[in-house]
Specification:
single chain; 477 residues; FAD/NAD(P)-binding domain; Enolase-like, domain 1; 3 domains; seven-stranded mixed β-sheet; five-stranded parallel β-sheet; 22 strands; 31% helix; cytoplasm; FAD/NAD-binding_dom; NAD
Length: 477
Protein backbone atom coordinates (compact mmCIF):
# COMPACT_ATOMS: atom_id res chain seq x y z
CA UNK A 1 0.00 0.00 0.00
CA UNK A 2 1.19 3.51 -0.84
CA UNK A 3 0.66 6.39 1.58
CA UNK A 4 -0.34 9.89 0.50
CA UNK A 5 -0.15 12.86 2.86
CA UNK A 6 -2.76 15.59 3.11
CA UNK A 7 -3.40 18.56 5.36
CA UNK A 8 -7.13 17.82 5.38
CA UNK A 9 -9.03 14.64 4.50
CA UNK A 10 -12.79 14.90 4.13
CA UNK A 11 -14.80 11.67 4.32
CA UNK A 12 -18.09 12.18 2.50
CA UNK A 13 -18.82 14.20 -0.63
CA UNK A 14 -22.29 15.49 0.19
CA UNK A 15 -23.12 19.17 0.79
CA UNK A 16 -21.17 19.31 4.05
CA UNK A 17 -18.18 17.35 2.76
CA UNK A 18 -17.55 18.75 -0.69
CA UNK A 19 -18.10 22.32 0.51
CA UNK A 20 -15.69 21.77 3.43
CA UNK A 21 -13.11 20.40 0.99
CA UNK A 22 -13.47 23.37 -1.38
CA UNK A 23 -13.24 25.95 1.40
CA UNK A 24 -10.18 24.21 2.87
CA UNK A 25 -8.52 24.22 -0.54
CA UNK A 26 -9.33 27.93 -0.96
CA UNK A 27 -7.54 28.51 2.34
CA UNK A 28 -4.37 26.92 0.98
CA UNK A 29 -4.58 23.39 2.38
CA UNK A 30 -3.67 20.22 0.49
CA UNK A 31 -7.06 18.45 0.52
CA UNK A 32 -8.47 15.01 -0.26
CA UNK A 33 -12.15 14.10 -0.40
CA UNK A 34 -13.40 10.51 -0.22
CA UNK A 35 -16.89 9.56 -1.40
CA UNK A 36 -18.44 6.19 -2.28
CA UNK A 37 -21.68 7.14 -4.09
CA UNK A 38 -21.97 5.40 -7.45
CA UNK A 39 -24.00 6.29 -10.52
CA UNK A 40 -25.85 3.73 -12.62
CA UNK A 41 -22.63 2.78 -14.40
CA UNK A 42 -20.62 2.37 -11.20
CA UNK A 43 -18.76 5.63 -11.61
CA UNK A 44 -18.38 8.37 -8.99
CA UNK A 45 -21.47 10.37 -8.05
CA UNK A 46 -20.45 12.91 -5.40
CA UNK A 47 -23.12 15.05 -3.79
CA UNK A 48 -24.41 12.62 -1.18
CA UNK A 49 -28.05 11.95 -0.41
CA UNK A 50 -28.97 15.53 -1.34
CA UNK A 51 -27.79 15.29 -4.93
CA UNK A 52 -28.45 11.62 -5.62
CA UNK A 53 -31.64 10.64 -3.80
CA UNK A 54 -32.79 13.74 -1.93
CA UNK A 55 -33.06 17.47 -2.53
CA UNK A 56 -32.12 17.63 -6.21
CA UNK A 57 -34.02 14.69 -7.75
CA UNK A 58 -37.11 15.34 -5.64
CA UNK A 59 -37.25 18.94 -6.87
CA UNK A 60 -36.89 17.73 -10.46
CA UNK A 61 -39.90 15.43 -10.03
CA UNK A 62 -41.87 18.11 -8.18
CA UNK A 63 -41.29 20.46 -11.11
CA UNK A 64 -42.33 17.87 -13.69
CA UNK A 65 -45.44 16.87 -11.78
CA UNK A 66 -46.40 20.50 -11.21
CA UNK A 67 -46.19 21.17 -14.95
CA UNK A 68 -48.46 18.18 -15.54
CA UNK A 69 -51.00 19.33 -12.96
CA UNK A 70 -51.02 22.88 -14.34
CA UNK A 71 -51.52 21.57 -17.85
CA UNK A 72 -54.42 19.41 -16.73
CA UNK A 73 -56.17 21.87 -14.42
CA UNK A 74 -54.87 25.45 -14.56
CA UNK A 75 -54.07 26.13 -18.22
CA UNK A 76 -57.74 26.40 -19.16
CA UNK A 77 -58.08 29.47 -16.93
CA UNK A 78 -55.41 31.12 -19.07
CA UNK A 79 -57.21 30.32 -22.29
CA UNK A 80 -54.84 27.46 -23.12
CA UNK A 81 -56.51 24.30 -24.37
CA UNK A 82 -54.90 20.86 -24.46
CA UNK A 83 -56.11 17.56 -25.80
CA UNK A 84 -54.98 14.05 -24.92
CA UNK A 85 -52.74 15.09 -22.00
CA UNK A 86 -50.42 12.26 -20.96
CA UNK A 87 -47.39 11.63 -18.77
CA UNK A 88 -44.34 9.66 -19.85
CA UNK A 89 -42.99 8.54 -16.47
CA UNK A 90 -39.91 6.95 -18.03
CA UNK A 91 -38.95 10.23 -19.69
CA UNK A 92 -39.71 12.18 -16.52
CA UNK A 93 -37.38 9.91 -14.54
CA UNK A 94 -34.71 10.21 -17.24
CA UNK A 95 -34.86 14.00 -16.98
CA UNK A 96 -34.51 13.69 -13.20
CA UNK A 97 -31.46 11.46 -13.65
CA UNK A 98 -29.99 13.99 -16.06
CA UNK A 99 -30.36 16.78 -13.53
CA UNK A 100 -28.64 14.61 -10.91
CA UNK A 101 -25.75 13.85 -13.27
CA UNK A 102 -25.25 17.55 -14.01
CA UNK A 103 -24.81 18.15 -10.30
CA UNK A 104 -22.50 15.12 -9.87
CA UNK A 105 -20.32 16.31 -12.76
CA UNK A 106 -20.35 19.86 -11.42
CA UNK A 107 -18.88 18.72 -8.10
CA UNK A 108 -16.17 16.68 -9.84
CA UNK A 109 -15.31 19.79 -11.87
CA UNK A 110 -15.08 21.86 -8.68
CA UNK A 111 -12.70 19.30 -7.16
CA UNK A 112 -10.47 19.57 -10.23
CA UNK A 113 -10.71 23.36 -10.29
CA UNK A 114 -9.66 23.60 -6.63
CA UNK A 115 -6.94 20.92 -6.94
CA UNK A 116 -8.68 18.57 -4.52
CA UNK A 117 -7.65 14.90 -4.72
CA UNK A 118 -10.79 12.82 -5.10
CA UNK A 119 -10.95 9.16 -4.07
CA UNK A 120 -13.95 7.05 -5.08
CA UNK A 121 -14.61 4.53 -2.35
CA UNK A 122 -15.42 4.14 1.33
CA UNK A 123 -13.10 5.87 3.74
CA UNK A 124 -12.42 4.36 7.16
CA UNK A 125 -10.08 4.96 10.04
CA UNK A 126 -7.04 2.72 10.37
CA UNK A 127 -5.28 4.27 13.34
CA UNK A 128 -4.07 7.51 14.87
CA UNK A 129 -0.45 8.37 14.18
CA UNK A 130 1.97 11.02 15.30
CA UNK A 131 1.22 13.01 12.15
CA UNK A 132 -2.57 12.69 12.28
CA UNK A 133 -4.76 9.81 11.16
CA UNK A 134 -4.43 6.99 8.67
CA UNK A 135 -7.50 6.61 6.47
CA UNK A 136 -7.99 3.58 4.24
CA UNK A 137 -9.75 3.86 0.89
CA UNK A 138 -9.70 1.04 -1.67
CA UNK A 139 -6.06 -0.13 -1.83
CA UNK A 140 -4.56 3.05 -0.46
CA UNK A 141 -3.82 4.54 2.92
CA UNK A 142 -4.02 8.30 3.24
CA UNK A 143 -2.46 10.28 6.07
CA UNK A 144 -4.33 13.39 7.15
CA UNK A 145 -3.31 15.97 9.72
CA UNK A 146 -6.97 16.98 10.04
CA UNK A 147 -10.03 14.85 9.24
CA UNK A 148 -13.55 16.13 8.55
CA UNK A 149 -16.33 13.53 8.79
CA UNK A 150 -19.35 14.28 6.63
CA UNK A 151 -20.88 10.84 6.14
CA UNK A 152 -24.52 11.93 6.16
CA UNK A 153 -27.57 9.90 7.10
CA UNK A 154 -29.72 6.97 6.02
CA UNK A 155 -33.49 6.54 5.86
CA UNK A 156 -34.98 5.08 9.04
CA UNK A 157 -36.97 1.89 8.46
CA UNK A 158 -39.94 0.78 10.52
CA UNK A 159 -38.97 -2.00 12.97
CA UNK A 160 -39.46 -5.35 11.30
CA UNK A 161 -40.18 -3.78 7.91
CA UNK A 162 -36.99 -3.31 5.90
CA UNK A 163 -36.97 -1.37 2.65
CA UNK A 164 -37.13 -3.58 -0.43
CA UNK A 165 -37.30 -0.46 -2.68
CA UNK A 166 -39.91 -2.19 -4.82
CA UNK A 167 -43.00 -2.12 -2.65
CA UNK A 168 -41.77 -0.69 0.68
CA UNK A 169 -39.85 2.40 -0.33
CA UNK A 170 -37.42 4.85 1.24
CA UNK A 171 -36.83 8.25 -0.37
CA UNK A 172 -34.56 6.40 -2.83
CA UNK A 173 -37.26 4.04 -4.09
CA UNK A 174 -39.87 6.81 -4.04
CA UNK A 175 -37.83 8.64 -6.68
CA UNK A 176 -37.69 5.60 -8.96
CA UNK A 177 -41.32 4.41 -9.17
CA UNK A 178 -41.60 3.29 -12.78
CA UNK A 179 -45.31 4.01 -13.33
CA UNK A 180 -48.00 5.94 -11.55
CA UNK A 181 -49.46 3.69 -8.82
CA UNK A 182 -53.24 3.61 -8.53
CA UNK A 183 -52.93 3.78 -4.75
CA UNK A 184 -49.94 5.06 -2.80
CA UNK A 185 -49.46 4.96 0.94
CA UNK A 186 -47.11 7.26 2.85
CA UNK A 187 -46.14 6.76 6.48
CA UNK A 188 -44.96 10.06 7.93
CA UNK A 189 -46.17 13.54 7.02
CA UNK A 190 -42.78 15.22 7.16
CA UNK A 191 -40.89 16.87 4.31
CA UNK A 192 -40.15 13.69 2.31
CA UNK A 193 -43.61 12.21 2.78
CA UNK A 194 -45.45 15.35 1.72
CA UNK A 195 -43.17 16.10 -1.23
CA UNK A 196 -43.22 12.56 -2.65
CA UNK A 197 -46.91 12.19 -1.90
CA UNK A 198 -47.54 15.41 -3.82
CA UNK A 199 -45.52 14.24 -6.83
CA UNK A 200 -47.51 11.05 -7.33
CA UNK A 201 -50.87 12.60 -6.41
CA UNK A 202 -50.42 15.19 -9.16
CA UNK A 203 -49.73 12.39 -11.63
CA UNK A 204 -52.94 10.57 -10.71
CA UNK A 205 -52.28 8.36 -7.69
CA UNK A 206 -54.74 8.16 -4.81
CA UNK A 207 -52.49 9.08 -1.88
CA UNK A 208 -53.08 8.37 1.81
CA UNK A 209 -50.69 9.76 4.41
CA UNK A 210 -50.57 8.13 7.85
CA UNK A 211 -49.03 10.23 10.62
CA UNK A 212 -48.44 9.03 14.17
CA UNK A 213 -48.49 12.46 15.78
CA UNK A 214 -51.85 14.02 16.65
CA UNK A 215 -50.91 17.33 15.02
CA UNK A 216 -49.96 18.09 11.42
CA UNK A 217 -46.44 19.47 10.89
CA UNK A 218 -45.81 19.96 14.59
CA UNK A 219 -42.54 21.84 14.00
CA UNK A 220 -44.30 24.43 11.83
CA UNK A 221 -46.14 27.47 13.16
CA UNK A 222 -49.63 26.20 14.01
CA UNK A 223 -51.49 28.80 11.95
CA UNK A 224 -49.33 28.07 8.91
CA UNK A 225 -49.68 24.29 9.37
CA UNK A 226 -53.48 24.55 9.48
CA UNK A 227 -53.47 26.57 6.25
CA UNK A 228 -51.23 23.99 4.58
CA UNK A 229 -53.37 21.08 5.81
CA UNK A 230 -56.46 22.72 4.37
CA UNK A 231 -54.73 23.21 1.01
CA UNK A 232 -53.39 19.64 0.80
CA UNK A 233 -56.76 18.16 1.73
CA UNK A 234 -58.46 20.26 -0.94
CA UNK A 235 -55.95 18.96 -3.49
CA UNK A 236 -56.86 15.36 -2.66
CA UNK A 237 -54.17 14.22 -0.24
CA UNK A 238 -55.85 12.09 2.42
CA UNK A 239 -54.04 12.76 5.70
CA UNK A 240 -54.81 10.74 8.84
CA UNK A 241 -53.30 11.96 12.10
CA UNK A 242 -52.77 10.18 15.42
CA UNK A 243 -52.52 6.71 13.90
CA UNK A 244 -50.63 3.73 15.28
CA UNK A 245 -49.14 1.57 12.55
CA UNK A 246 -49.20 -2.18 13.07
CA UNK A 247 -48.25 -5.04 10.74
CA UNK A 248 -47.09 -4.24 7.22
CA UNK A 249 -47.08 -7.03 4.66
CA UNK A 250 -46.43 -7.40 0.95
CA UNK A 251 -49.46 -9.21 -0.46
CA UNK A 252 -50.64 -10.74 -3.72
CA UNK A 253 -48.73 -12.13 -6.67
CA UNK A 254 -47.46 -10.81 -9.98
CA UNK A 255 -49.26 -7.73 -11.24
CA UNK A 256 -51.58 -7.81 -8.22
CA UNK A 257 -48.76 -7.52 -5.72
CA UNK A 258 -49.11 -4.68 -3.22
CA UNK A 259 -48.76 -3.66 0.40
CA UNK A 260 -51.20 -4.04 3.27
CA UNK A 261 -50.89 -1.71 6.28
CA UNK A 262 -52.75 -2.49 9.48
CA UNK A 263 -53.21 0.54 11.74
CA UNK A 264 -55.34 2.01 14.45
CA UNK A 265 -56.84 5.44 13.78
CA UNK A 266 -57.12 8.34 16.21
CA UNK A 267 -60.46 6.99 17.47
CA UNK A 268 -58.87 3.64 18.33
CA UNK A 269 -60.55 1.83 15.45
CA UNK A 270 -58.69 -0.93 13.61
CA UNK A 271 -58.12 -0.11 9.94
CA UNK A 272 -56.37 -1.64 6.93
CA UNK A 273 -54.86 0.32 4.08
CA UNK A 274 -54.20 -1.56 0.82
CA UNK A 275 -51.85 0.20 -1.60
CA UNK A 276 -49.69 -0.58 -4.61
CA UNK A 277 -46.62 1.11 -3.11
CA UNK A 278 -45.74 2.31 0.39
CA UNK A 279 -43.31 5.14 1.12
CA UNK A 280 -41.91 5.12 4.66
CA UNK A 281 -40.61 8.54 5.68
CA UNK A 282 -40.26 8.51 9.46
CA UNK A 283 -36.94 10.31 9.69
CA UNK A 284 -33.29 9.55 9.12
CA UNK A 285 -30.43 8.11 11.18
CA UNK A 286 -26.76 9.21 11.21
CA UNK A 287 -24.51 7.15 8.95
CA UNK A 288 -21.31 5.87 10.55
CA UNK A 289 -21.37 2.45 8.87
CA UNK A 290 -17.90 1.31 7.88
CA UNK A 291 -16.17 4.33 9.40
CA UNK A 292 -14.34 2.07 11.88
CA UNK A 293 -14.85 4.65 14.64
CA UNK A 294 -13.78 2.16 17.32
CA UNK A 295 -10.27 1.93 15.84
CA UNK A 296 -9.51 5.47 17.01
CA UNK A 297 -12.01 5.81 19.89
CA UNK A 298 -14.35 8.22 18.12
CA UNK A 299 -17.29 8.92 20.44
CA UNK A 300 -20.85 8.29 19.22
CA UNK A 301 -24.08 9.04 21.08
CA UNK A 302 -27.04 6.72 21.69
CA UNK A 303 -28.48 7.61 18.25
CA UNK A 304 -25.26 6.70 16.52
CA UNK A 305 -24.45 10.34 15.80
CA UNK A 306 -20.89 11.60 16.16
CA UNK A 307 -20.58 13.65 19.33
CA UNK A 308 -19.30 17.18 18.68
CA UNK A 309 -19.08 20.45 20.57
CA UNK A 310 -20.51 23.80 19.42
CA UNK A 311 -17.66 24.16 16.91
CA UNK A 312 -18.04 20.65 15.40
CA UNK A 313 -14.96 19.25 17.18
CA UNK A 314 -15.17 15.55 18.09
CA UNK A 315 -13.51 14.00 21.15
CA UNK A 316 -10.40 13.38 19.01
CA UNK A 317 -7.87 16.13 18.34
CA UNK A 318 -7.88 17.15 14.70
CA UNK A 319 -11.11 15.29 13.89
CA UNK A 320 -14.27 17.24 13.04
CA UNK A 321 -17.78 16.25 11.97
CA UNK A 322 -20.53 18.15 10.15
CA UNK A 323 -23.99 17.74 8.65
CA UNK A 324 -26.50 14.94 9.17
CA UNK A 325 -24.04 12.79 11.12
CA UNK A 326 -24.00 15.29 14.04
CA UNK A 327 -26.60 17.08 16.17
CA UNK A 328 -28.93 19.67 14.72
CA UNK A 329 -31.33 19.75 11.80
CA UNK A 330 -30.64 17.39 8.89
CA UNK A 331 -30.58 20.09 6.23
CA UNK A 332 -28.17 20.35 3.30
CA UNK A 333 -27.62 24.08 3.79
CA UNK A 334 -26.91 23.59 7.49
CA UNK A 335 -24.25 21.02 6.51
CA UNK A 336 -22.72 23.45 4.00
CA UNK A 337 -22.43 26.23 6.58
CA UNK A 338 -20.83 23.84 9.07
CA UNK A 339 -18.40 22.66 6.38
CA UNK A 340 -17.27 26.20 5.67
CA UNK A 341 -17.01 27.03 9.37
CA UNK A 342 -14.86 23.94 10.10
CA UNK A 343 -12.47 24.66 7.23
CA UNK A 344 -12.04 28.19 8.54
CA UNK A 345 -11.52 26.98 12.11
CA UNK A 346 -8.80 24.61 10.90
CA UNK A 347 -7.16 27.68 9.36
CA UNK A 348 -7.31 29.51 12.69
CA UNK A 349 -10.24 31.69 11.69
CA UNK A 350 -13.54 32.07 13.50
CA UNK A 351 -16.13 30.25 11.40
CA UNK A 352 -19.66 30.64 12.71
CA UNK A 353 -23.08 29.06 12.15
CA UNK A 354 -26.18 30.70 13.58
CA UNK A 355 -28.68 27.91 14.19
CA UNK A 356 -31.39 30.48 14.98
CA UNK A 357 -31.44 31.74 11.40
CA UNK A 358 -31.33 28.48 9.44
CA UNK A 359 -34.33 28.46 7.08
CA UNK A 360 -36.58 25.45 6.59
CA UNK A 361 -38.51 24.69 3.40
CA UNK A 362 -41.06 22.12 2.26
CA UNK A 363 -41.32 22.22 -1.54
CA UNK A 364 -44.95 21.24 -1.86
CA UNK A 365 -47.58 23.42 -3.49
CA UNK A 366 -48.16 25.62 -1.62
CA UNK A 367 -44.57 25.83 -0.48
CA UNK A 368 -43.93 26.16 3.25
CA UNK A 369 -40.90 28.05 4.59
CA UNK A 370 -39.92 29.47 7.92
CA UNK A 371 -37.08 30.84 10.00
CA UNK A 372 -36.86 31.57 13.70
CA UNK A 373 -39.42 30.78 16.37
CA UNK A 374 -43.05 29.76 15.99
CA UNK A 375 -45.92 31.37 17.84
CA UNK A 376 -46.35 28.29 20.01
CA UNK A 377 -42.65 28.40 20.97
CA UNK A 378 -42.92 32.04 21.99
CA UNK A 379 -46.01 31.31 24.08
CA UNK A 380 -44.28 28.37 25.78
CA UNK A 381 -41.29 30.59 26.60
CA UNK A 382 -43.55 33.30 27.99
CA UNK A 383 -42.11 35.90 25.63
CA UNK A 384 -44.27 38.89 24.81
CA UNK A 385 -44.66 39.25 21.05
CA UNK A 386 -46.68 40.90 18.28
CA UNK A 387 -47.94 39.07 15.19
CA UNK A 388 -48.83 40.28 11.73
CA UNK A 389 -50.17 38.32 8.76
CA UNK A 390 -50.97 39.10 5.13
CA UNK A 391 -52.78 36.73 2.73
CA UNK A 392 -51.59 36.11 -0.82
CA UNK A 393 -55.26 36.46 -1.78
CA UNK A 394 -54.71 40.24 -1.49
CA UNK A 395 -51.41 40.24 -3.44
CA UNK A 396 -51.61 41.43 -7.06
CA UNK A 397 -48.78 39.23 -8.36
CA UNK A 398 -50.27 36.13 -6.72
CA UNK A 399 -53.60 36.88 -8.40
CA UNK A 400 -51.87 37.23 -11.77
CA UNK A 401 -50.08 33.91 -11.17
CA UNK A 402 -53.37 32.29 -10.26
CA UNK A 403 -51.90 31.05 -6.97
CA UNK A 404 -53.35 32.91 -4.01
CA UNK A 405 -53.22 30.18 -1.35
CA UNK A 406 -51.54 31.00 1.95
CA UNK A 407 -50.01 33.92 3.79
CA UNK A 408 -46.91 35.54 5.25
CA UNK A 409 -46.66 35.80 9.03
CA UNK A 410 -44.30 37.96 11.10
CA UNK A 411 -43.58 37.53 14.80
CA UNK A 412 -41.78 40.37 16.56
CA UNK A 413 -40.77 41.22 20.12
CA UNK A 414 -43.52 43.24 21.81
CA UNK A 415 -41.09 45.78 23.26
CA UNK A 416 -38.21 46.05 20.77
CA UNK A 417 -39.99 44.99 17.54
CA UNK A 418 -37.05 42.68 16.72
CA UNK A 419 -38.13 39.97 14.25
CA UNK A 420 -38.32 36.64 16.09
CA UNK A 421 -39.76 34.48 13.33
CA UNK A 422 -41.17 34.63 9.83
CA UNK A 423 -43.47 31.92 8.46
CA UNK A 424 -44.76 31.58 4.91
CA UNK A 425 -47.14 29.21 3.19
CA UNK A 426 -47.77 30.05 -0.44
CA UNK A 427 -46.17 30.59 -3.85
CA UNK A 428 -42.35 30.76 -3.95
CA UNK A 429 -42.07 30.67 -0.16
CA UNK A 430 -38.63 29.05 -0.57
CA UNK A 431 -37.33 32.20 -2.25
CA UNK A 432 -39.23 34.75 -0.15
CA UNK A 433 -37.84 33.41 3.14
CA UNK A 434 -34.31 34.64 2.36
CA UNK A 435 -35.29 38.24 3.02
CA UNK A 436 -36.37 37.22 6.50
CA UNK A 437 -33.10 35.34 7.11
CA UNK A 438 -31.06 38.41 6.14
CA UNK A 439 -33.23 40.65 8.29
CA UNK A 440 -32.88 38.40 11.34
CA UNK A 441 -29.10 38.10 10.89
CA UNK A 442 -28.91 41.88 11.14
CA UNK A 443 -31.32 41.99 14.11
CA UNK A 444 -33.85 43.94 12.05
CA UNK A 445 -37.21 45.01 13.36
CA UNK A 446 -40.54 44.42 11.64
CA UNK A 447 -40.62 48.17 11.09
CA UNK A 448 -37.37 47.94 9.10
CA UNK A 449 -38.99 45.58 6.59
CA UNK A 450 -42.18 47.65 6.57
CA UNK A 451 -40.16 50.74 5.57
CA UNK A 452 -38.24 49.06 2.72
CA UNK A 453 -39.56 49.64 -0.81
CA UNK A 454 -40.57 46.38 -2.48
CA UNK A 455 -41.12 46.07 -6.23
CA UNK A 456 -44.70 46.14 -7.51
CA UNK A 457 -46.22 43.83 -8.44
CA UNK A 458 -44.25 41.15 -6.61
CA UNK A 459 -44.89 38.35 -4.17
CA UNK A 460 -42.40 40.01 -1.82
CA UNK A 461 -44.92 42.79 -1.22
CA UNK A 462 -46.75 40.27 0.96
CA UNK A 463 -43.66 40.21 3.17
CA UNK A 464 -43.74 43.99 3.52
CA UNK A 465 -47.47 43.95 4.23
CA UNK A 466 -47.11 41.27 6.92
CA UNK A 467 -44.44 43.43 8.56
CA UNK A 468 -46.85 46.38 8.41
CA UNK A 469 -49.53 44.16 9.96
CA UNK A 470 -47.39 43.77 13.08
CA UNK A 471 -48.27 47.42 13.73
CA UNK A 472 -51.83 46.92 12.40
CA UNK A 473 -51.36 49.17 9.39
CA UNK A 474 -51.51 47.01 6.27
CA UNK A 475 -52.21 49.00 3.14
CA UNK A 476 -53.80 46.41 0.86
CA UNK A 477 -55.94 44.28 3.16
Amino acid sequence: MSTKNFDVIVIGGGPGGYIAAIRAAQLGFNVACIDEWKNGKGGPAPGGTCTNVGCIPSKALLQSSEHYEHAGHAFADHGIGLKDLSIDVKKMLARKDGVVKQNNDGILYLFKKNKIAFFHGRGSFVKATEGGYEIAVNDEVLLGKQVVLATGSNARALPGTPFDEEFVLSNDGALRIGEVPAKLGVIGSGVIGLEMGSVWRRLGAEVTVLEGLPTFLGAVDEQIAKEAHKAFTKQGLKIELGVKVGEIAVTGKGAKKGVSVAYTNAKGEAQTLAVDKLIVSIGRVPNTIGLNAEAVGLKLDERGAIVVDDECRTNLPGVWAVGDVVRGPMLAHKAEEEGVAVAERIAGQHGHVNFNTIPWVIYTSPEIAWVGQTEQQLKAAGRAYKAGTFPFLANGRARALGDTTGMVKFLADAATDEILGVHIVGPMASELISEAVVAMEFKASAEDIARICHAHPSLSEATKEAALAVDKRTLNF
